[in-house]
Design goal:
Jelly Rolls, globular
Length: 284
């Protein structure tokens, strides 16, 4: 069963809808695993493998927890293929919570999806495609597991465009922990809360894109692309055509005005201009 709630129609020209490469998956929380830090990381939800899953790690049953999935160019999503729960084994599936209802949204539209309580993959056709670069998968209701952890898990949400998976098995083997870089991957925003003018995307393939989009039409914008590396402590950036620059990256959690958690990334470097060296938030 699929219930689609259309808030505003977003129509992009067909020429603008590139087959965007997968960019990142960023979660509001993940279940900690002492011996394997990447065991329940958000990238597991897009690799198309039953042996891996994302499990949220917030207090409660997981309702309201989310994963933001980003692409490196605009895409049109007309189908998702969902494998519910922790599907690596029947025991793990029954022990952990599964998702009963989730929402899939972009900035302007939202679909509500009701799932079955099964380990088998479920194909969900979207009545109206979602278009853009950034999509949010959010847990709305759960099937309660038999274990004590009370963690809700999703094994896979594969995004499909015109019958072609844009995430899934093609990414298997490419989505390791990245030496802690998974904590930085995602879209970051700088400027007034709710009205940012600067955007920084850090992708799983170790590339980045920075954009300055001023509200003043008389002021020129800016775009910088390049590479980044992060070993869990030291951040290095290489804007296209320039040398590598060492920077510090401080990541911390804080609360926003609406009471929901947000992450704050502060990048500082002597040889990096103010475009990139500033304070960033993972929420607009």
């Amino acid at each position: 069963m699929l219930t689609a709630i259309l808030l505003v129609s977003l129509l992009l020209p067909a020429s603008a809808l590139a087959k965007g490469a997968f960019g990142y998956a960023r979660a509001s929380s993940q279940l900690e695993h002492d011996s394997r830090p990447a065991r329940y990381q958000p990238l597991n939800m897009v690799d198309g493998r039953a042996a891996t899953s994302w499990c949220e790690g917030a207090r409660g049953d997981g309702v309201g927890q989310r994963i933001v999935v980003g692409f490196q160019a605009p895409v049109s999503i007309d189908e998702v293929r969902v494998t519910n729960g922790e599907a690596s084994s029947r025991q793990a599936f029954k022990a952990n919570n599964r998702v009963r209802v989730l929402t899939l949204s972009n900035e302007l539209a939202r679909h509500t999806v009701t799932l079955s309580d099964t380990q088998r993959p479920q194909e969900i056709k979207l009545g109206k495609p979602l278009e853009g670069e950034r999509f949010v998968v959010e847990i709305q209701e759960v099937f309660r597991g038999e274990g004590e952890a009370n963690a809700t898990c999703l094994t896979d949400v594969v995004f499909v465009s015109g019958g072609k998976p844009l995430s899934g098995p093609s990414l298997a083997g490419k989505l390791g922990d990245r030496n802690g870089a998974v904590a930085l991957m995602g879209s970051w925003y700088s400027g007034l809360e709710g009205a940012p003018e600067r955007f920084l995307d850090l992708y799983f393939d170790k590339t980045f894109r920075y954009r300055y989009q001023p509200f003043d039409p008389e002021e020129p914008g800016e775009e910088i692309r390049g590479e980044f590396a992060f070993d869990g402590k030291q951040l290095r950036l290489k804007p296209s055509g320039k040398e590598w620059v060492e920077a510090s990256a401080a990541l911390k959690a804080e609360e926003s005005k609406d009471g929901l958690p947000r992450a704050r990334l502060v990048i500082a470097a002597e040889r990096l201009d103010g475009s990139l060296a500033r304070s960033w938030s993972d929420r607009p």
